[in-house]
């Protein structure tokens, strides 16, 4: 059974997790642990979780116990659109962040979450560099379509030169998804908060700037990239 299937089976209203189980989930989610107490997660609707899970066919299920089981699961994860993965992440991460707020206070809990997301985004930027085959402005421009995977973003390319790129995001399904679940308060933290760190991981010598986001109510997000001298 993979981690997502396990979480789906565990998703019962008002679920209180014994401390050892809670620790396992925190590690899986890349979150710092809360020690010394049981952890209560807010209800997650079973049907909603089931809708988000890519169901394996019978042959793939049979392969779970085989030597290739790990490879099968990896392929399944990579086949799920990024927007769906972020939706699953948000439905799990937000109750955890809110639990941390009760223990640590709002500012400290958000700082911890922000640091975790930043570190994950830096690693994602490094992976993007490997996937693009380099970290120059040319490589970045060639990788721009990846940001629209699964229709997650719609954008207009305003400018591309050997040292600059300007992109206006005109539709953001991440923002729509967070709003659909009533998570606007956390949408910027979980979504937009990755952008600067992603570029730091890709190439810290490419300066990224952004002055507005759809998540904050703007008509578009203005992404600007500049190769430093």
Number of strands: 6
Helix segment tally: 11
The Cα radius of gyration reads: 19 Å
What order do the SSEs take from the amino end to the carboxyl end, as H and E? HEHEHHHHHHEEHHHEE
Q: What is the total domain count?
A: 2
| Arithmetic mean of pLDDT | 76
Helix proportion range = 40-55%
Q: How would the global form be characterised?
A: globular
Q: Strand order, biggest sheet? A: 3-4-6-5
In angstroms, what separates the terminal alpha carbons?
50 Å
Describe the structure.
This protein has helices at 3-10, 19-28, 46-52, 58-63, 69-79, 82-104, 106-132, 137-143, 173-180, 184-190, 195-202; strands at residues 16-17, 39-40, 153-160, 164-172, 206-209, 221-227. By secondary structure, it is of the alpha+beta class. Strands 3-4-6-5 form a four-stranded antiparallel sheet. A two-stranded antiparallel sheet has the order 1-2. A hairpin with a 3-residue loop joins strand 3 and strand 4 (164-172). The chain starts with a helix and ends with a strand. Residues 1-63 have low confidence and may be disordered.
Break the fold down into its secondary structure elements and pairings:
Elements: H1 3-10, E1 16-17, H2 19-28, E2 39-40, H3 46-52, H4 58-63, H5 69-79, H6 82-104, H7 106-132, H8 137-143, E3 153-160, E4 164-172, H9 173-180, H10 184-190, H11 195-202, E5 206-209, E6 221-227
Antiparallel strand pairs: 1-2, 3-4, 4-6, 5-6
List key phrases describing it.
229 residues; alpha+beta; 11 helices; 6 strands; globular; disordered N terminus
């Amino acid at each position: 059974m993979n981690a997502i299937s396990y979480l789906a089976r565990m998703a019962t209203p008002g679920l209180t997790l014994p401390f050892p189980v809670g620790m396992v989930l925190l590690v899986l989610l890349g979150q710092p642990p809360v020690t010394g107490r049981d952890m209560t997660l807010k209800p997650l609707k079973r049907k909603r979780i089931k809708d988000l899970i890519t169901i394996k066919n019978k042959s793939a299920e049979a392969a779970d116990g085989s030597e290739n089981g790990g490879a099968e699961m990896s392929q399944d994860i990579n086949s799920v659109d990024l927007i769906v993965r972020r939706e699953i992440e948000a439905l799990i991460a937000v109750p955890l962040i809110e639990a941390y707020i009760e223990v640590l206070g709002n500012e400290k809990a958000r700082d911890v979450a922000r640091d975790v997301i930043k570190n994950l985004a830096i690693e994602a930027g490094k992976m993007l560099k490997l996937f693009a085959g380099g970290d120059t402005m040319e490589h970045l421009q060639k990788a721009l379509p990846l940001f629209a995977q699964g229709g997650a973003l719609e954008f207009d390319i305003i400018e591309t030169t050997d040292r600059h790129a300007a992109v206006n995001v005109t539709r953001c399904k991440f923002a729509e998804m967070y709003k659909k679940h009533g998570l606007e308060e956390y949408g910027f933290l979980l979504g937009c908060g990755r952008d600067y760190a992603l570029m730091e991981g890709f190439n810290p010598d490419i300066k990224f700037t952004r002055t507005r986001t759809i998540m904050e109510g703007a008509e578009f997000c203005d992404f600007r990239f500049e190769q430093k001298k």
